[in-house]
């Protein structure tokens, strides 16, 4: 045990600090698998361009695995160097990512900084502050029959080569936050940005190789064919964020290699509003959590459960809350985002008829704009209650009381998050004890995922596994049991 700790401490503080070497726009840099798109693809077919032959996913995995087997990624100094390099990129080149996020999702610079860039920087800082302690071997008591000279402990070992597949709704944060944990754990990493956020994907593919060790890191751009090719390879862990349908595909592919998987999915996250709650405070917090990123947030409140009297009071309160956030014309507000593409716009537009429009309801397909919308008098069997909304539509469903609300929640898939607005400790305790959800927030939606010392993840249909802070290290590591008995 003492020998292991000595080696460990020698590795801790040898980093030469972070650095960011950003490649200019142009041919793919090392660490990037370039997939021709649009005009470039046509030119290649015609023979009018002659780029470097793109590296195939199988070659990427083989190259990274060869690096991992040298032991290069295991020293703590290497890990912290990668994290500092990533932090430097975010602080020095964050404006370029913010521009890409605006192009893909209409995010304001403020929202891009707060929810994607600064969020990741805080995760890096938290990891750097605590990584040495997290990695310390944990002693275990040894039974007397093994002798007083026997010692035992557990230690975290890197898994190997891991794959991170990111979604389009927070295309930077939800790629980079898992990457932080994977690197901190000492793995080689392949990341696959979402093709549905093409500007952000391109920016990440250009910026990341300049800040990380490209012998142990790669970005693979592309769509379904590239993702399918990656999933055919043997990884040591796959981390997927997205919807349940694709999550099942990922899980089936991983089963071919017995690869462990983290699935960060979603679902319909309810918000229960008790009759004793301050309706305007509730409305302000609901609106801020729901309409951030135009409702395209996996832990956004999906629908409200409350009694009929409180529901009636919520309607004007939510109207005031929306106006306070985005003014009388949200379409003109620089702080309100857009729907990612026409397909999702059409899907969301089709849900607007599921109830009486109490707030908003305006749409503009050309601008991919759907106003912050509240639907009242919603029937539980209506289309808007049959799927995760993932957009700026908030249905209000009425129930007689707490028992019915708990039953309503339990009759459906376990949500990624559950929010409770109540002054009653008894009500809060009952919901905590009698329901199951990935996370539980009392009085403030979304906030639990910003606490680095809390695990973030789903349960049941909303996902498996978790991450953030120490939980990311655990996800991307093997906790190995070690026992030592001297020979002499």
- Uncertain ranges: 1-19, 22-28, 34-52
Strand composition percent: 15-25%
How many domains make up the coordinates?
2
CATH superfamily of the largest domain: Aldehyde Dehydrogenase, Chain A, domain 1
What structural class do the secondary elements suggest? Answer: alpha/beta
Mean pLDDT: 92
Specify the helix fraction band: 40-55%
- How many strand units? 19
CATH domain fold name of the largest domain: Aldehyde Dehydrogenase, Chain A, domain 1
Q: Describe the biggest sheet?
A: 7 strands, mixed
Could you provide a short overview of the structure?
The chain is of the alpha/beta class.
Task: Walk me through the structure.
With 488 residues, the protein is an alpha/beta fold. It has two domains: 2-265 and 465-483, Aldehyde Dehydrogenase, Chain A, domain 1 (3-Layer(aba) Sandwich), CATH 3.40.605; 270-457, Aldehyde Dehydrogenase, Chain A, domain 2 (3-Layer(aba) Sandwich). 40% of the residues lie in helices and 17% in strands. The protein is built from 15 helices and 19 strands. It has helices at 2-12, 38-46, 57-69, 76-105, 109-135, 173-184, 198-207, 224-231, 244-255, 279-291, 308-326, 342-349, 402-410, 425-434, 470-475, and strands at 32-33, 138-140, 151-158, 161-165, 188-192, 217-220, 237-241, 261-264, 270-273, 303-306, 356-359, 363-364, 369-370, 373-376, 393-398, 417-421, 439-442, 463-464, 477-484. The protein has a seven-stranded mixed sheet with strand order 1-6-5-4-7-8-18, with helices on both faces. Strands 11-14-15-10-9-16-17 form a seven-stranded mixed sheet, sandwiched between helices. The protein has a three-stranded antiparallel sheet with strand order 2-3-19. α6 links the parallel β4 and β5. It starts with a helix and ends with a strand. Residues 43-482 form the Aldehyde dehydrogenase domain. The active site is at residues 264, 298. GO terms for molecular function: oxidoreductase activity, acting on the aldehyde or oxo group of donors, NAD or NADP as acceptor. This is Aldehyde dehydrogenase. Pfam families: Aldedh.
């Amino acid at each position: 045990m003492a020998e292991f700790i000595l080696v460990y401490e020698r590795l801790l503080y040898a980093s030469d600090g972070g650095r960011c070497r950003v490649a200019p726009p142009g041919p793919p840099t090392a660490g990037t698998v370039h997939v021709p798109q649009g005009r470039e693809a046509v030119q290649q077919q015609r023979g009018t361009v002659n780029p470097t032959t793109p590296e195939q996913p199988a070659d990427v995995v083989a190259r990274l695995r060869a690096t991992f087997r040298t032991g290069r990624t295991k020293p703590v100094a290497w890990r912290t160097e990668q994290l500092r390099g990533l932090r430097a990129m975010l602080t020095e080149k964050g404006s370029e990512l913010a521009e890409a996020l605006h192009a893909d999702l209409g995010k304001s610079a403020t929202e891009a900084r707060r929810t994607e860039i600064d969020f990741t920087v805080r995760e890096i800082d938290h990891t750097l502050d605590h990584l040495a302690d997290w990695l310390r071997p944990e002693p275990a008591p040894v039974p007397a029959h093994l002798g007083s000279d026997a010692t035992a402990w557990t230690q975290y070992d890197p898994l190997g080569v891991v794959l991170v597949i990111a979604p389009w709704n927070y295309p930077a944060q939800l790629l980079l936050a898992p990457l932080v944990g994977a690197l901190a754990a000492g793995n080689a990493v392949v990341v696959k940005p979402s093709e549905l956020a093409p500007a952000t994907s391109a920016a990440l593919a250009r910026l990341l190789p300049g800040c990380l060790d490209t012998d142990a890191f790669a970005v693979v751009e592309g769509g379904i064919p590239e993702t399918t090719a990656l999933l055919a390879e043997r990884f040591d862990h796959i981390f997927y964020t997205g919807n349940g349908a694709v999550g099942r595909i990922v899980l089936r592919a991983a089963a071919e290699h017995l690869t462990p998987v983290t699935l960060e999915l979603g679902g319909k996250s309810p918000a229960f509003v008790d009759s004793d709650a301050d309706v305007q405070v509730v409305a302000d917090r609901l609106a801020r959590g729901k309409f951030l990123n135009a409702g395209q947030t996996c832990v956004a409140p999906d629908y409200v459960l409350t009694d009929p009297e409180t529901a009636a009071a919520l309607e004007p309160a939510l109207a005031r809350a929306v106006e306070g956030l985005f003014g009388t014309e949200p379409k003109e507000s620089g702080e309100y985002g857009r729907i990612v593409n026409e397909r999702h716009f059409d899907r969301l537009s089709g849900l607007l008829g599921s109830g009486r429009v109490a707030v908003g309801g305006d749409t503009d397909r050309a601008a991919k704009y759907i106003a912050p919308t509240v639907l009242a008098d919603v029937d539980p069997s209506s289309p808007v209650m049959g799927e995760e909304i993932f957009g700026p539509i908030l249905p209000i469903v009425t129930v007689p009381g707490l028992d019915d609300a708990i039953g309503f929640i339990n009759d459906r898939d376990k949500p990624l998050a559950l929010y409770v607005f109540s002054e009653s400790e008894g009500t809060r305790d009952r919901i905590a004890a009698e329901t199951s959800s990935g996370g539980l927030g009392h009085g403030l939606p979304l906030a639990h995922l910003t606490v680095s010392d809390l695990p973030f993840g789903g349960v049941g249909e909303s996902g498996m596994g978790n991450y953030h802070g120490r939980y990311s290290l655990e996800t991307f590591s093997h906790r190995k049991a070690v026992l030592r008995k001297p020979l002499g």
